[in-house]
Amino acid sequence: MSQLLNAPEQWLRYMPAAQHQRQELRLVESAWDQLSLLSSLSLLSSRASSGGDLAQARRDFAALSADLMRGLASEAFKNRTDDLVARAQVCIDVLVRNLFERTADIGFFATDGGVADYLADPAPGLRAGIESRLREYASKYTVYGNIFLFDTTLQLCASLHAVPAAGGELQREDDQAFLSSVVRGDVPYVEHYAVHGFCGSTEPTLVYAQRVLSGGRPVGVMCLAFKLADEMLAIFGSVQPGGAQGSDVVLALLDAQGRVLVSGDALQLPVGWPLPQAAGAGVQVLRHASRRYLMAVCDTQGFQGYRGPGWRGVALLPLDVAFEESTQDDRSALAGSFAGSLAAELSGQAELLSQELREIPRRSASIQSALERSVWNGLLELNQLGTGSGAADVAPRELVFAKTLLSEIGTTARKTAQAFSGALQDLYGVVMQSLLRDAQSRASLAMQILDRNLYERANDCRWWALTPQFARTLEAGAVGCDKATAVLAEINGLYTVYACLVLFAADGRVMAVSQPGQAHWVGTVLDEDWVRQCLRLRGSQGYTVSRYEDSRFYSEGPTFVYAAAVRAGAAGGTAGGADAAPGASTPVLGGIAVVWDAAHQLQSILDDCGVGAGERDALAFVDAAGRVLRTSGDGQAVMAPDAVAAGRQGGRTAALTGHLYGVGLARGQGYREFRVSDGYDHGLSCLVLRHLCERRSGAPAAPLLATPAVAARIGAEHRAQMATFLVGSHWLGVDAAHVVTAAPDATVLNAGGARAPFQGLAQIGDRVYSVVDLRSVVAAGPQGVAAPRTTDPHRQMVLVRVPLEAGGAREFILRVDALGAMLDLDRRDIRPVGMAGAGSQRISLIDAVVPVPTADGSAGQGMLCRISAQWLEQCALGALGDEPAQDVDALLAAA
After folding, report:
1. How many CB atoms lie within 10 A of CB 286?
2. Is the full-model pTM beyond 0.70?
3. Is-contact 304 290, C-beta < 8 A?
4. What does 357-404 look like in DSSP terms, one character per residue?
5. Interval 624-634: pLDDT, tens
6. Fewer C-beta neighbours within 10 Å, C or N terminus of the chain?
7. 424 contacts: CB under 8 Å, gap ≥ 6
8. What's the fold here for domain 465-601?
């Protein structure tokens, strides 16, 4: 996949949203070209617009635009391929877990006493009874299409369903060779995918086989035919966002050579079609049937050492639709995630991006700040030219042209910022969409695995209740029966998901257990609710499940206990009629309970579904009451009180323990009849938290101030020129005559003897000046942020020259968050104020306010606060002392 990402630009032609963003950026670049031409029309215009700065900004924006498009393409490509890999991985891993259960099934069923007795002497009169028993088995394990019993001469003695002859000498010869190898073999199971004539089909089938022993000698072969196509279509549908028919993704199961075994779309990818490119795992572009596809191929991760038949999962997506707009669900989730204040927090977090893209937001901010500073300084210089001693040497028309040009540069800079902001928002959106989808898919996968796991438990207890030995033990009242104990132990050895198996009588007395460590409970009368419910069950299809709670048979916390009733007819073994298939009218002798190893099984599911997640990601199973049952990953996050509530309220993001997380929550949809039509619901859900970023709240930024339209009509005697800037959410300004220049932010060096409010020293040009960080002077409120000494591309430094009453002037730096407009104001609009709450001896930071329209008009009027000339002088003299930050919000409220 890394090779595919080496040239992400090649994917832009398939990405309509990215093409739209590229067009927007190209229009902005064209505007800069026009401004560069206009700035060269006169010397004053070129000087005021800092032609060199303008040209550099144009080059920087062009380079950033190219990098941003590459980043958008690479993230969109990675997002799509990650999604394909996840789907292909789920397909093969869920199948392998299912097949793992089949290897245990054949191992147990081949030891069934009734089957062994029948094959030892397959009298024709007993066939109806044994086939009734096979139907009992298949009614519980609905994953099997047919079951076959062969004797040692390889003749079919019984089957679940009669099948037509497949025909052909070749199939018969192959069947003979296969069955002979099973009879001669001594392995726990045989897994065989091939054409089996006894299955009545010329197409390959997946069969699990085992030889059957009676008295230590082979008496025949049992074969279980697995419903592979049926199972795979269910898996395909479960991993498609809109179901198998609602997605452009084509899913398939491949053999080791890349040949299609089962396809989710036979028209695009027929069964039997060879895909040589899919002979190994990976992501690549595939040309198939005159169409180009993105293809992801995955090997299984295995389960408890079992890796299945060596097959692979594949997901294909046509390139012409691969990068179309998200589904409605994705768009809704993304819109919800980027709502309100959370949007600003997420959009400003560079750590959401890949390492190679994290510099893009910083570079964008740095270029924007440089342009704002260039325009600000240009306007400052033009104002000084228009009012200074050299004003007569400047043609009014040229001065107006230069100011207009700078104003247009400022407007274009804002449009450029908006264009880049939109592109960055799309970039963050692609990343967020991927993280949110990943969280939800992990939660859904965990629940799918859990439901399939518990489906098997519901089947196992009902089938094992038909074991003849259990009925005989209960009828005899043989407490501690060695034969029953041996059968329970054998079953438990095959099925490692159980902590213990328990056989109990109709009065609740424990007759036998599978684990020696639980033998002290033999003879004890059980009083649990699930025991009473089990003894009231009607029919062999019924089962009961305990609440998720502590059990005397399990020492590692709460668990589920599944139980089914043992009836008198089960002791008949292979006898015909009702004896082989006990029904509701048969007396209940007791029951068998299977104690699920919940701690290890739940943990295994969470750990497997958490593969590839980050250190701060978390997964958990929770119950219907919202209690966390088991966690994987960052348990501190998932145990936060609001974590479960965030998922249950439908939120896709949550703020927890000082961090932001993407949320995925799934309840599961059941599997086959389990939790679908059998009336049972375990009430569990899976919660997944994908760590997004650390939460860094700051004061809301104020919108930009507009230059009032009436400024040109203000008489010279009433005109006041003010240089403005932003500190948090506050607009501040000083008389433009006091400002020397604006400079890029620089690191503030510690100065041992610096007195408050000075924090240290910084360099502008060839000189070093003392620095006052206005964040330390203006009270920021509860969402305030600490003033860093390191450079920040968003911030600026304003060099001021303050005249002293005693004569002369002193220069120092005001460190601000951003530059505002350079304003021409009417002095009659300036309202003198005093700092609210300030003591009589305290110099007020603010001495006047003036209402000013905002740049876009959407926020009405803003309040500009003028910094007091007296405060500036006292600051320059070092006479302020270490005073608390002043509350500008209180001042504005009073004003």
Report:
1. 17
2. yes
3. no
4. GTHHHHHHHHHHHHHHHHHHHHHHHHHHHHHSTTGGGS-HHHHHHHHH
5. 988 999 999 88
6. N
7. 68, 347, 360, 361, 364
8. Beta-Lactamase (3.30.450)
